[in-house]
Amino acid sequence: MRFARLALASCFAVSQAQVLHQDAQQPLKLEESARRVAVIGAGAAGASAAYHLRKFADEAGVKANITIFERNAYIGGRSTTVQAFDDPSSDPIELGASIFVKVNYILSNATEEFGLRTVELGSAREYDGYNGTARLAAAPLLGVWDGEKFLITQSATNRWWDTAKLLWRYGLAPIRTNNLVKKTVNAFLSLYEEPMFPFASLSDAAYELGLTAVTATTGWQYLEENKVGGLFAQEVVQAATRVNYAQNLGLIHGLETMVCMATDGAVGVEGGNWKIFEKMVEGATKDVLLGTAVSAVRKVEGGGYILEWKEVEGGDGSAESKMKSEHFDSVVLAAPHQFSDIEIAPESKRVPDKVPYVQLHVTLFTSPHLLSPQAFNLPPDELVPEIILTTLQPDEKPGSDPKGVGRAGFFSISLLQPIVNRKVNPPREEFTYKIFSPTEIDAKFLIKILGLQDSPLGAEDDEGEEAQLDVSKEDVSWIYRKVWHSYPYHYPRVTFEEISLDKDFWYTSGIEGFISTMETSALMGKNVARLIVDDWMGRKKDTHVDDGGKREL
């Protein structure tokens, strides 16, 4: 890797012969030296920024050397997978971002371009019949649970009947919501095309598209203003905001609420959505430094930035190498500023606000047992839905701390694809579960939902204290826990973080307070890439930061 600074300059010299013979004048050419760009973060935003920067630079005839720094030992950020039992032959299970939808054009187009196969979410109905799974075919596909009862369930096959039930219970609310989603999504999609794209200010773009009127109110208020309140908002829409963003309808803003209801064509990439971003990185550069923590970004008086970093073994801080540094002409910070642990000196002209993020507990586990009907107050002969979403009861407050989860105690439980447990003899097919919750899922919770009656639930030891509960390997054969700073709390707001933090210093994570998805992060990465190349080519658009930290329009 070269350590010398490579500058890009424009050649404006016009020869005397060209002055005399205008028809022979040559088009403007840039010098052969290349711009050096550092992208910090290899998640959806960073991978997209690097990939589209390569494409836009090539189209403009500009040479760009791109280096990607990633603290983790893998590409994909919050899109990553694990394999049950640490068995490399087992199907990967999404630990983070699981699906994208039909209107996610960047991700959908990328899967086609890269030849990646998309699949619908795995269903428990694919099990071969172990331990009573033949009965599973008759189970509801989805149910909404309020901590005491299922408010509504839907089947996997009888959709006409489910539609009739929805209209009978909720009136025209489902239809009005669908129309509202279409209207909101159509406005958002304007960000992909000229004249809105590329947008130098997300706040200005959102205002021009009328979307700040949607982000300015809570989801509950926005639905009520559009005649979609009452039961449908409480039971269905709130269940969607909880499973997607671990937030209740009385707190989350209206735009993110609409995103939760835009579910047409939901798919994932076979083997993991991270493969999209791996392909983007491969198409952008060979200079990818995984397990590398950037510690400082220092502005150089003559232009550009010095980056300092250490290689961290495994990305977990267990072993560190000697500090390294290099000069780059432009820097893209493609990770939340508040979690980056990067010293920026001198302080950038615009500093992103520190905002509260959800701490989401994701629990994956495998078991030979189906969920217990009794745990959900169902008769013993009834079947528990494959996917359990949750909502608050009418008297519960939509708080943002873990108590905001309400009596349900969790956000969702999903029965995933089958898994073969080869750790037992003979190998057996088991059920795979995923739980989203605000706190750690403990043994007591697992004992309850699996109906393990012989376990010491509620037992006391000799000193009158509750016994320490555990679950045997026979009942829960594998468990994996992960806590994510998954997305911001999407409180109502009308302004969003600046994209340009300083000259040649760009930021992508401001879009997370607007909409937090793989697609929108990829959109902001693409947007930043275009702004960078436009800046190189002298095609500046609207927004820069002056010395007082204000936007000049």
From TrEMBL:
GO molecular-function terms, A-Z: prenylcysteine oxidase activity
Cofactors, names only: FAD
Pfam families membership: NAD_binding_8, Prenylcys_lyase
Keywords: FAD, Flavoprotein, Glycoprotein, Oxidoreductase, Signal
Taxonomic superkingdom: Eukaryota
InterPro entries: FAD/NAD-bd_sf (IPR036188), Prenylcys_lyase (IPR010795), Prenylcysteine_Oxase1 (IPR017046)
Transmembrane segments: none
Span of domain Prenylcysteine lyase: 157-541
Keyword Glycoprotein: yes
Range of residues in the leader sequence: 1-17
SUPFAM superfamilies: FAD/NAD(P)-binding domain
GO terms (BP aspect): prenylated protein catabolic process; prenylcysteine catabolic process
Entry annotated with the keyword Signal: yes
Family note: Belongs to the prenylcysteine oxidase family.
This protein's name: Prenylcysteine oxidase 1
